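B., you asked whether I could sanity-check this one before it goes into the benchmark set. Here's the sequence:
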Amino acid sequence: MAKLLAALRSAIACRPPTRGALTEFLPAEEQDYPILNKHYIAFERAAVSFLCKQDVIEPNHITYFRLGVCLLLVSFYSELSYLSILILALLGGLSDFFDGAFARSASKKTRLGVLIDPLADKILIFTVVYILIMRKALDPLYVLLMVILETHVLIVPLLSWFYSIFKRSPDGVAYSTSKNKRPATIVLKTKPVLMGKLKVSLYMFALLSLMLGKAGNCPLLVNLAHGLLISGICAGAAAFGIYLLRWSRQPHPLS
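And here's what the prediction gave me:
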C-alpha cells in the first residue's frame, strides 16, 4: 500500500497541470504595465522576486485573497473597529499590486486574471464604501456617482455589440478590421486608461483617509477624504469620456 501511494504521489507530481483558455499563462505585454519605465519595471520584479521563485502560489491566488478580504469585511464589519477595517483594506490594496506585478514578472498573466483583477479592485472599493455608508460615515451620493461612472465596462461592449449587428457583411457575418477578414468576436473588456488608474488611486486614498480620520477622530483627515473623493469622481468622469471617445474612433473592439 505504501508503495502504491508513493507511486500515485509521483505520478501526480510529474503530471503537468491541464490549463484551459482562461487559465493559460500568457507573457506580459507593454500595455500591461501601469508605468512604462525601466526603473519601475525593475522595482516590480525585485518586489515579487520571492514569488517568482516558487511554483505553489499563482497571481490569481492573490486576487482570490483580495476577494476573501472583501467577504471578511462584509461579514464582520459591525464588530470591527475602524483601525481593523483599515488594516484589512490595506492588505487588500497591497494584494492588487502584488498579483499584477507577479503576473507580469513571471509571465503568468491569464485571461481569467485580466477579468477578475479589476473586478476584485472594484469589489474591494465598494465593500469599504458600503461599510462606511452603513456606519453613517459617507454620503450615499458619492456612491451613486461612482457607480454611474463605472458603467463604461458595460456600455462599451454593448455599443460594440450593436455596432457589429448593424455593420455585418453581405453574408450576415460580422468581421474584424484585420486584413484576414476572419469572423469577429466582441472583447468584453476595455483597455485601461491613465485617468482610470488615477481614479482608483484617489478613491483608495480617500477611503483610507476617511477611516484614519474616524479611527483617530481627526476632522482634518475626514475633510481631506471628501476632497479626494470629489477629485476621484472628476477623474472617473474624464476616464468615462475617454473610453467613449476612444470607442467612437474605433467603434468595434473585435478580435
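One thing to flag: The longest helix spans residues 219-249. Otherwise nothing jumped out at me.
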